[in-house]
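Exercise 7. Given the components listed, write out the predicted structure of the assembled complex. Treat all entries as one system.
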Amino acid sequence: MKIEKENISLSQLLTLLINFLLGSAIVVGVGGDAKNDAWLAILLGGLIGIGIITFFHFFIYRFPDKNMFQVFEFCIGRKITIVCTLIYIVYYLYISSRVIRDFGELMATAILPNSPIEMMSLTFCLLMGYILYLGIEVLARTSEIFTPYLFGFFLLLAIFLFASGSLEFKQLQPILGEGVMPVIKTAFTELAFFPYGEMIAFSVIYASLTNKKYSLRVSIVGVGTATLILSVSAILMIVSLGADSVARSNFPLLSTARLVSIGNFIERLDALVVFIIMLGVFIKGSLFFYAGLKGLEYIFKLPYRYFAIPISMIISLFSILVSVDFADHIQEGIKMVPYYLHFPFQVVLPLILFLLVMWKQRKIKSKRKGEQDGTEQTKSSFIKETNKN
Amino acid sequence: MAPSRPNRRLLKKPIKIEDKLRNTEKKVEEKKESFDLTVETLPSEVINAFGNSADIKMIEGIISERNVKILFLESMVDSTSLKETTSKFLSSISPIGEYLKNIDELSAYCKGIFGGASYKIVSSKDESIHEIINGSVVIVVEHIDKALAVNIMNGEKRSVAEPTSQTVIRGPKDAFIESISTNVSLIRRRIRNKNLRFEQYTIGEDTQTTVYLGFFKGIANEAIIQEVRNRLKKIKVSAIFESGNIEELIADKTFTLFPLALNTERPDTVAANLMEGKMVILIDGTPFALIVPAVFVNFFESPEDYYQSFFLGSFLRMIRYLSFMIALLTPSIYVGVLTYHHELLPTTLLLSVIAQREGIPFPAVVEVLVMEITFEILREAGVRMPRVVGQMVSIVGALVIGQAAAEAGIISNIMIIIVSITAIANFVSPIYSFATASRLLRFLLIFFAAILGLYGVLLVLVAMVAHLAALRSFGVPYLAPIAPFIIEDQKDVFVRFPFWNMKKRPKYIRSESEQKVFSASPPSPSSMKGGNTS
Amino acid sequence: MRLKSVVIVIAIVTLLTGCWDHREISEITVVVGMAVDKGDDDKFTLTIEGINAKELSDKTASGFAPSVVFSLKGDTLAELSQKMNIGISKNLIFSHMKVLVIGESVLREGILDFIDFLERNREIRDDFNIVTARHVKAADILKVTFLVQKSSSLKLHTQLNSFVESWGGDPDIRLNDFIQAYTSAGKRGVLAALTINGDPKKGGSVDNMKKGAPDAMVVVDSMAILKKDKLLDFLPLKDTRNYLWLINKLEKTVVTVECSKNKFLGVRIFNTVTKSKGSLVKGRAIINLKIRAEAYLDSTQCKDDDLTQIKTFKKFGKLTDKQIKKDLETTIKKLQQNYEADIFGFGEILFRQDYNNFKRIEKQWDEYFKEAIVNVDVNVKIRRSGIRTKSPFSEKK
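Answer.
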């Protein structure tokens, strides 16, 4: 079976990045530990995020049209790569299930309380499976279409909140009341992994980019925009609900939207928020899912579409099995996942690999230096191919 | 006697002009060694081939002691010109024997009689059958091994009239008719350029329908033209009657509710699209032409957008998008909100809806389905009924069913509002075939709204967009200037920019030459500046 | 293809068993009001007002009661709210609740732990007024019908909102405000207090809403002040307005200013802003309030002053400043000395502006509040004086 090449444009990358970062982060709210400085923490986190994406970018662009797993192969050979890939697949699919679970919890709590969460998760995963069956291109285009609506609704929400007089900007004070430490701590221990570190999933996407020249710039813009939106939403939550209420809310943005009430007619905007949230979650879940599928594609050398529907069912199942109840789910997310999963998979392994790649490339370079500049040539041929696409 | 002489003189000129033609004919002659064309065998063979069909006719006669037989399909030829010409042909007792030595002289002679009609020399049975089918009379003369086919196909066609399904307030009022040659001329008259090309195809193994592929050379993308050609050539079916048949056979994907080719009966639409770099497929026997490649946004464009002020054009276009959403979503949102999300309605509205629905025996879903299906029945009845009765159906439908049902307390008033707005919004679509998408998807949406509320609606919507994003029309992504997003093309999507500003052809069509407007400055009244002094 | 059919089968099977949250609109009763009283043996008595929607629409109304009021006793509202079908026919939805009336008895004992239920519940929102009933049972408040909106809760919701807009007589407390006041160290809660004018028994009948001068009417009586969750006392309506003024929530009001002996000005205030600054200096809280407002002159009984003159405008402005300052200071004094309850959120001002110092005294804020120095600076600008210049009673010159 020939594995086909798919194309993603820069604007699609941008929307994917933004939706991905907003994803579940906007559902559960991030930076809550920094209380009413959450928005500052998010801004700082955004800077870290830009660093992270630059690093991934730099790393993956040593081989412009290889995805993460193929880079692994270059460093450590196919056999060990298969093992690594398997572990990564599990990681990606697990995170995907967690994302779906976040959304399922939101739905079951706020929108359809009597419907079984299995139902939400199943329908949602079927949809994801269908779209990835159609291809990552289709996912990218779908995200491109919905992103303007996302922005539009978000803006509307902000305007409505402002117009209904629920915003009290003095609630932002005291700024840095406890000093900068909580902000820094939140940014580095929480935000660096979730949501920014999760961008490792994009390491399988970059290979499909058509225009690689501006990809770094676009990625940075994407991370920046998402950070701004997250930060603004954090501000909105704090100034409307108060930091204390935000801390007590399971889904702060939803609680915020419930405050909107203009002239007894524009009110009850839950649906709007669920729409914002659903899209982000959808893109995020799908991207992790896609990353997992790409791993499978690498191992079995079959087009990933074959796996889309079956694996979507597995994700659906695991989104139910990952935790018994909401408290379990959240605690797992705060206490276990960052340290036992995010840290090794987002930081340790990529770093080791990066060093390996550097070392190996240098070795090849010096080896061939005498005869001819081989690596350079392959590199330039890569670039040529890229331009063709 | 008298008229035939001047004719003979006149005939000489055409012969000279035909020199080249003769040469080519000779080449053909050399290739074909044996001829089965004789005045004795051909007529009977042809008649046999037609199975002695009732409308195959033969006229026999003798000119200058030679047998002459004229074969034709009575149903395909123009009877008055037939009578006139055959009688002329057969009654001419001129020194014909001298002339009719070979086919060229025969044809030259015939030209004098039939005037400007197109004629063709045929040299085999199959060829003559083909010509007869296409409305020619085939003349065989003793001692000549070829026959002459003169096309006097009957001109029975409707005159060019106003479009019936794609009307405009301002703009040309002519529409295609069933005759392909008239249709081509309607287009050609709008684009007087040698680069406008038409290629002929005969599709339908049994119906032998003429199909034209038209494009503007130098603007239309060569690769896409080639793709269309290939797909047209690939068609192997027995019968083609309408552009809808072709549309299904050449579409990239048929398992979709969305049309992948634009159909239109307006020559101005075709001309405008040709100039943007698209192709047109004309089919003989139908007033509907196909325009390919077609993308989603094309179905929201009406020619009128370009004939009226761009403010109005843009406004109307947005209205069309809005009504598409309304037609698609209103009933399902009604169901979703009323059965799942009461909290989304403002209190006063909720209370008045409750008051209205008090005592209505059906659940909201059933109510919606009953009304929607009733409406679809009415609509279908309105189209199929004889014109006179058709009026009554709409009156009966609107008044009796709507009002009576509401008064009897079976259906709530708000439901009638919803169904009507949905129906009316559905008719806004400038291309009728596109409305089917929202018409049918609506039911799927209602189904999911009934099961999962607005979440279900959202799921279907996302799936729908994904499906749209996966579609392609002749290789062009169906959602093209929106996803993939092409910023240059946004000037003619949701709004229409003024003409002087739309300098380039849409990028997604991958036109060979992009420039559309040559002088790129807005009109300005600079020359009027000094006007006050007078 | 086989895969597709499998998916379709799964989808159909799972989907068709569904409709879990399906609630047909003809099977629900909208709850617009809730009242919580103390139960006799149990903790609470929950009273709800369910709308009879048919009566609210002119087309379908036939003169029956616009709503049904029903009470149940129990220990948690969560259970009671779902148990109402003991007496009521349809399912209840709480998402359109307009008013929550808390009985005086409940407030006095401070058993407000049912608030948690309201905050946690997904249906109940933050757009209803929270009030308390003075002298009467909370349940009775919901029973009184009224000419215009018919249902008591709908009427109260509109009434309270109008009152905030026109004069500032309702502290406009929503769930979120209530909870913020409860959780904050530097702020105490308040509630509007309602009572019934007339006979509560007669108020419940349909006849009551047929009369131009009803037998019973729900009126805004005063403002309840709370310490944590316990009722301290009721303050007169004038203090409500002053309260709103001090926390910068006043929209419009009219102040009566004495311009000479037993002669008054009516000054209509609009566009008013209160800026607050606070700090702790030498163990004493200092709060500076700056009030800036614009005003119309609505009426004058001082016929000698010529309203075509700049100086008259200035003079009246000064008088108004003084009057308002006096009023506000009285209210602040009252709360400092009589109640030691910081309903104005001065503590919060300090929390925001002098975080580190405030952290230290957070626990003893009530005592610091009593000693706090509050400087009120009022500046009202009278902009115009209606469509006449001089008073008709002014002496002709």
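Discussion: Chain C has a mean pLDDT of 88. The two ends of chain C are 102 Å apart (CA to CA).
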